[in-house]
Amino acid sequence: MSETISFNEIPAGWAVPGSYGEVTTIPSGNDVTDMPLRRLVLGQKGGGTGASLVRYQNISPSQAAVLAGSASALAATVAAMVAAAPYVAVDMVMVDAPTGGTAGSATLTFTGPATANGTAAIEANGVRVPFVVTSGMAATDMAAAAAAAFTSDVSVQTGLNATADKGVLTLTSAETGTFVNDIDVRMSSLTADLVPGMSVAVTAMTGGAGTVDLSAALALVSNVWFTDIVSCLNDASNRNALETEAERRFGAMVKKDAHVYYGYRGTYGEVLALAETVNSRFMTCIPAQNPRWAPWIMAGVAGSIAAQALNNDPSRQLRTLELTGLTGMAPDDADLFTDAMRNVLLQSGMSTFTVDQDGTVRIERMVTNNQTDATGDTTKAWRDIMVPKTVSRVRYEWNTYIDATYPRAKLADDTSSMVGIAAYVVTPKALKGSWAAQSELYETVEGWLQDTDTLAQQAVFTIDPSDRNRCDAALPIRVMGSLIVMANSIQLQA
């Protein structure tokens, strides 16, 4: 009946003859909403011209180099993130370097003389730095040649400055802080880089001291939408701040879900010790023993690859995806975690990777830091990163659907006869029908959920007894599983 139809633009009682039509848009019910994808990178300001605690939007590698400092870890991370996902926007916020912080340094002590001509190479922060050695060169000459190879461009790429004195090459970090101690320095062990008569003793990076607090940076963007956050810093204080912020963002009244990524450099025992201190559904750590990459580079690459893939399909596992830009930078074979070690690490909330014969690094399994539930009991419910990503996506899509479909709806009891789009009246029963239809899309079209036929019927929609303007709903869901382990019993017949 016409009297049940409500209009937004056509006045009631209009007397001028003619046919009038207002056009409105409603969701088709056959599509899901795209979730906006946006990355954030947090780190320490180097020698750049930018200001701390400023959100620099849609940052490019060249801009990051100017603002954060060309030799800074933050600029290198931005470059790695853009290379890994060039079409996804990334914002940058930095904090000032620590007051009283100190730089780190590594030393390479040469012994000679060289007995043949050749080219040696230092691997510094993942960058191969070759230098020429001639027969008869003494230790002092070889160290000087190595220092000369650290041109201004190489110093920018590595974040290290070189000096030589009496056969000892000293590489000093351009930045200060404890985190610089994670910069890898080693001599190339490739046969082509071995010079007869020359030997080099390497002392790892040490001496970097001082930490900064990312809390102010997190507060600056607390109301800004980000789906994924990369942290260049992984100390305990900042991990706690990031965990708190990620939990806050996931809250029902905030709804700005974001996943945090960070890297870690350590032995198997050190990684397990770290695992005992973390427990977050929305943080992912990718540890490695003696990798050539820096933890912040791994965080930037892994976070970017995961962000893009999981935005395309939040329920699809990430196994075999290449970690772009890390080829040839993995730990040596002796430093790779064994199958047994990786099994323990995965059960302890640490993600793992594999290395192909050609040095390509790939995600093996990406998990969250979550290990126990709110009661302290061990849980696997939030283990894989796909779980929080899928839950976030379903919540975002359902909330968006409700806002778009029922923006000015009236709410009536299930017994009401005035129901439908024409009257802008909705009931709990009608909302349950919408949920059943949408959740079917989430399963049959998107492949995010499973068992929706059963679970949608178990959903409960009811008008709040103390507020007639509020409909309360309980929506059980089961996230789609993944073929992660295939266990076969191959039975040879005699």
From TrEMBL:
Top-level taxon in the UniProt lineage: Bacteria
Domain named Tail sheath protein subtilisin-like: residues: 207-368
Protein family membership: Belongs to the myoviridae tail sheath protein family.
Protein's recorded name: Phage tail protein
Pfam family for this entry, one: Phage_sheath_1
